[in-house]
Amino acid sequence: MINTTYVLECSINGKAVAIPVPASKRMSDILRDDLLLTGTKVSCEIGRCGACMVLLDGKPVNSCLLMAYQAAGSEVTTIEGISAGEDLHPVQQAMLEEGGLQCGYCTAGMVVTLTALWENNPAPTRAEAEQALCGNICRCTGYEGIFRAVERCGLSIKREG
């Protein structure tokens, strides 16, 4: 029988990880089941809803479509790695202040996606935010609070800079 387990070595939320995993395991399962990083949600499991979004070397990807071996040697950032300790990331603060969440199930994926957007474009337009979020589905908010959060975060970053 062929050994289908290998050691995944990567960085998750800034910490080096070396964990034995089956070759067929998805990154979302590694994060939730093995590393207990349950902020990454799993919903559709086919890459359509964005609830499982993580950053892979700074780019948003659906972790349900990412085989664990594909993350080898990379930096993976989950929702747990977005904030700096007790302080909320500006994206998280803006979502909170503008009502960009309701049930919260999609929130982690939205925040991860918007964090990547703001890191590349600190003052995105609504159209740019809509484009960035086209892979994230929210069934509760109607998106207006999310787009107000995009505007608020852009304004706060402009003031700081």
Automatic annotation (TrEMBL):
Keywords: 2Fe-2S, Iron, Iron-sulfur, Metal-binding, Oxidoreductase. Residues 6-82 form the 2Fe-2S ferredoxin-type domain. This is Xanthine dehydrogenase subunit E. The keyword Metal-binding applies.
